[in-house]
Amino acid sequence: MTGKLLRQFGSPECVFNASLTELEACRLPAATAQAVKSRAGFRDAEKELAEVRRIGCGLLHWQDSEYPHRLLEIYDPPPLLYVRGDPQVLRRHAIGVVGTRRPTPYGNQIAERVSRDLAERGMVTVSGLARGIDSSAHRGSCAASRGSTVCVLGCGIDVIYPKENRGPEIVCRSQTGGIVEA
After folding, report:
1. Do 76 and 3 contact (CB within 8 A), yes or no?
2. Residue ranges making up the domain that contains 148
3. Strands of the chain, DSSP E
4. Sheet holding 149-152, edge to edge
5. Is position 157 within any domain?
6. Structure pTM?
7. 91 and 42 assigned to the same domain
8. Quick one: the chain helix, strand, coil %, rounded to 5?
9. Quick check: 132 pLDDT over 50?
10. Same domain, yes or no, for 116 and 177?
11. Overall domain count for the chain
């Protein structure tokens, strides 16, 4: 819904300045339109921005030149990406790796090896940082001399989960790659 409102009105400021009638014309429920009009969410957004700055992250919106162009091609792309690390990594060729959270030792070994080999050839590994294959893929990419990784998080950007991924082989290396929360 946020994306639809931004496309309709052009900017967050215009959304907050829209009339109740204009907001309801976007098929917002009356209670939601009134909440937008009261600007309660605006104060929450200011707090969120302060927290993002405090933890050393940045925000990319879909009009930023660094926002991944391919992500704009999906249905209803996220209007904002929280980014920690080098946002230029998001513009490089990437491969997504998703797998089971309970892999065999062989599965972990292959995920790590394939990701490392691809990273040596300039590919960025994109995965969810979940336990299992995802973590193995990130570790493999980080082990490469040219490796970069993008972690797409399902939790806050300040939360590295599972805790075993807080180690330097993923988190510190991700500073040269990126951690993304949509």
Report:
1. yes
2. 87-181
3. 58-61, 80-85, 94-96, 124-127, 149-152, 178-181
4. 58-61, 80-85, 178-181, 149-152, 124-127, 94-96
5. yes
6. 0.70
7. no
8. 45, 15, 40
9. yes
10. yes
11. 2
